[in-house]
Amino acid sequence: MRKPTPRASSRGRATAGVRGGTARRGVIAPRATARRTYTAGTRKAAAKRSTGGTRSRFSGVRIGLVVLMVIAGLKLVQVQGFEATTLAEAAAKQRSTEITIPAQRGAITDRNGVKLAFSVETRALSVNLKLMRKTWDEYAAKNPAKGRNFETEVAAASKYISEKLDQRITERELLDKFHKDQAFTYLITDVEPSAALDIVKKFPSIAAEPQAKREYPGGSLAANIVGLANWRSDDPTPSKHNVHGLTGLELLRDNELAGTPGRMTADSQNGKDSVVIPGTERDVQPAIPGAGLELTIDADLQYDLQSKLSAYVAESHAKGGSAVIMDAKTGEVYALANDNTFDPNDKDTRTTERMGNPAVSNPFEPGSVNKIITATGAIDAGIATPESVTSVPGSLQVADKTVRDAWAHGTQQFTTTGIFAKSSNIGTLLLAQQLGPERYADLLKKFGLGQKTGIGLPGESAGFVPDRTQWSGTTFGNLPIGQGLSMTVVQMAGLYQTIANDGVRVEPRIIRAKVNPDGTRVMENPAKQVEVVSPQTAKTVRDMMRAVTQKGKGQNSGTAPTAALDGYQVSGKTGTAQQVDPRTKAYSNQLYNITFAGILPADHPRFVVGIRLDAPDTTLPVGHSAGPLFHDIASYLTQRYNLPLSDGPAPVVPLVVG
């Protein structure tokens, strides 16, 4: 039986059960719900409510957009107004790099203005490998048909640079540097500026940085004095830093020579390690050049001394040698040489042994040249005169030591002049005993032994003199004959400079003046002076020592007639001192220090010369004496400085009486 259908209205109809379904058995069906019927008024109200909701949502979105725009505007004002300077500085900082401008290092010249060391401007070639690889990878990707990439570019650059620099660096070496596993590298330093400019123009990825190079035009000339300046081994970017001294005066006076580097800021393509963009340099702080040094040495005389010394050392088969030429009045060093030196331009010669300066750093036992102290003391104290006679036996007992002369003889009568001209150990000790250890020790101090001379060179040794409180019975048997104490060749020459300068010891000097960048000269502080003995004593000793070079009859010849120079009076003293054998730690009968110190001319002193030969072959004619070397040095001095001839030849005086 059909269920009755509810009556439908004109607007809709009721639906039995659940919409779209039927009532399940056993389940009470929900109450039928009729579809709502709307009148015209009702539809208008509904539409109004719907429109109001839409408008509300639109207004909310609009307000939100306005708020966002206000916030963005405020942020823009903040960035462009309040933070503009800060952000601009930060951006500039990211793309800028600071470049060091090397300071011009001061030159080192001799007393006549001859340049011994000076600096020239060069370039260091460098490359930002990271940026270069990126640039060429991008280029190759955009232009595959052109066949150019990082590999082709570095191959071309390596070939061009190697050829441009005359194979100073090979293509293979350059390729290895281009393929380093790092962001930045230096390719080569010391490149001539015009060559560097050509390379950079052809290969813009390569940069050329300013660099200073030290030049030594004389090579080994005065190298032990001047020294060496270079980039320090711990400097990772040598072209960005000044050259610094490593040895010699380059090291000792580095602060004055180096100057102050300058700085400038420039933009780069990719931050600090990239290539600088030309034309962006700014904020330049100029470099301040260093001061120069004017030395006391004469380059020509220095060359002559080095040549003669080296030849004599080789001829005598010596282990080495040193020599110095000093102004007799001022103490200025005109030449200072070692036979074994180095060339600052040749890295293969830069060994520790060759770069030292034995003339000031290696003391030795001087032997009989030290007898001048006893001679001075004896004359000054009135113990003896040049003509007074001393009976000299064949041997002398000093404490537990027996002293003999270099030649066997019985008791002989020596003049005081003869004791020193013949170099008698026994006669010297007899006079020293009369002088006494206290006065002798005081003279050692006044003559400057056991003290640094203050010459102004690095590594100077003070030598060695035993303290007076530590002297034993045999000490005073050694010191007067030049054993048991040590001195440098400069100190040894200083003994004779004192006698040449009327008894006044003057501190030796190697630097005359500092030359400021504007050309003004600042003289070194005045040399210290010490009055050791009276002028009359000094003249008497000086005249006495002329007999060392005299050639007389019989026993009246001195120990060094080969040192004599025609037309000039020469005062001097020879020395032969046993060296300590490094194996036995005792005095050797084969190893000797052969020395000579001389004054030229003796009647009007101008120069003092000191020579030391280290263990020459004393069986050779040139090995047992340095007199011939002094003669040759003195001969050049007289010509170089046009020294006036002496007033006359020195008189031949008796040395042994009876």
From TrEMBL:
InterPro entries: Beta-lactam/transpept, Beta-lactam/transpept-like, PBP_dimer, PBP_dimer_sf, PCN-bd_Tpept. The keyword Cell division applies. Residues 321-633 form the Penicillin-binding protein transpeptidase domain. The keyword Nucleus does not apply. The chain crosses the membrane at residues 58-77. GO terms for cellular component: plasma membrane. It is found in: Membrane. Residues 1-22 are annotated as: Disordered. Keywords: Cell cycle, Cell division, Membrane, Transmembrane, Transmembrane helix. Residues 100-264 form the Penicillin-binding protein dimerisation domain. It holds the Pfam family Transpeptidase. Residues 7-17 have a biased composition (Low complexity). One of its GO terms (biological process) is cell division. GO terms for molecular function: penicillin binding. Its main location: membrane. It comes from the Bacteria. Belongs to the transpeptidase family. This is Cell division protein FtsI (Penicillin-binding protein 3). It comes from Amycolatopsis xylanica.
